[in-house]
Design brief:
By secondary structure, the protein is of the alpha/beta class.
């Protein structure tokens, strides 16, 4: 089952200049967040990746063309460095297709432009390329395959720290509620899709707010609530938090390491209408 990773967005809230790395290449530890996501999928047996590239495409290509397994694997060096014996490997079994899908391209159009590389996969996976989780992807896929839906997305609790203000027309404040405590979920950026999703996706459109919404109105789109770990990397603050977690060895997203996971957070059961989309035109 192939995995489409959207790697083309500008990532404006993460950029320090016009030559900044594309957001999926921002590092967590010694590896970019894109690598962490690919390792996650590979853990569940999904090792064929299609990278929908845009801004910073050469940075993504060069990273993998010059990939060094020794940066994240133990090895034995002999003959003064002439021979290196890897004790484990990250990407030797991966098959990665690199596709330039344009700079200012909506996510749905990026998906359309890589469709020909999905071959005969009736069902495939997709991801924004900047979100980490410990969700059981094998169970998510199995649950999806038991339906006739054309797609599903993972719904998670909001991570934002802002509060929602409730007030009367005359300006009297009635309540102040943390958004994380509200009975709502947001789109977590992990998709399971059938080829039928393309029946709902027109040229130049967005995947979520166009195709997914149309499919939902036909009763053909599903939500998988996840109550465990989920974290985006949209901002420098979020990246810093993930960097610190990685530094102290608290990496719940690293399911390939079989490490400990935090206690699940309660996420209410939701219908598709209660899921708030993450605002992004490209990724």
């Amino acid at each position: 089952m192939k995995v489409v990773l959207f790697c083309g967005g500008l990532g404006m809230r993460m950029r320090s200049g016009p030559d900044s790395l594309p957001k999926p290449m921002m590092p967590i530890g010694s590896r970019p967040v894109l690598w962490h996501i690919m390792k996650y999928y590979a853990h569940f047996g999904h090792t064929e990746f299609v990278l929908a590239l845009g801004h910073g495409a050469n940075a993504v290509k060069d990273y993998f063309l010059n990939y060094s397994e020794t940066h994240s694997n133990d090895f034995v060096l002999t003959k003064g460095g002439e021979h290196v014996e890897l004790l484990s490997s990250d990407i030797s079994e991966w098959r990665i297709t690199f596709v330039d899908t344009g700079i200012d391209t909506a996510i749905g159009e990026r998906l359309r432009r890589v469709r020909r590389f999905l071959d005969d996969d009736e069902v495939f996976l997709a991801n924004y390329g900047d979100v980490l989780t410990d969700a059981p992807m094998d169970r998510i896929v199995d649950d999806f395959l038991a339906t006739d839906a054309v797609g599903s997305l993972m719904a998670v609790a909001p991570q934002d720290s802002f509060h929602v203000v409730r007030y009367d027309p005359d300006g009297t404040m009635r309540d102040l509620e943390p958004v994380a405590d509200m009975s709502m979920c947001i789109n977590g950026g992990y998709f399971v899709l059938r080829q039928g999703i393309f029946d709902y996706l027109n040229e130049g459109e967005d995947l979520v707010m166009d195709a997914c919404v149309r499919a939902a109105r036909d009763g053909r789109f599903r939500v998988h609530p996840h109550t465990g770990f989920w974290a985006p990397m949209d901002t420098l603050k979020e990246r810093s938090a993930l960097e610190e977690m990685n530094r102290v060895g608290d990496r719940p997203w690293a399911v390939w390491d079989r490490g400990g996971r935090p206690a699940p957070r309660r996420v209410p059961e939701v219908e598709i209408g209660d899921v708030v989309g993450r605002a992004r035109a490209t990724a």
